[in-house]
Amino acid sequence: MFLSTFEKQLDGKRRIVVPQDYRAALSGPTDGVFVFPSIRSNCLEGGGQALFDRYGAMADELEFGDELRDSIERNVFGEMQRLSFDTAGRITLPESLCDQFGLTDWVAVVGMRDRFEIWERDAYRAQRAADREFARQGLADMRSRQRSQRLGGAA
Question: CATH code at 61?
Answer without folding.
Answer: 3.40.1550.20
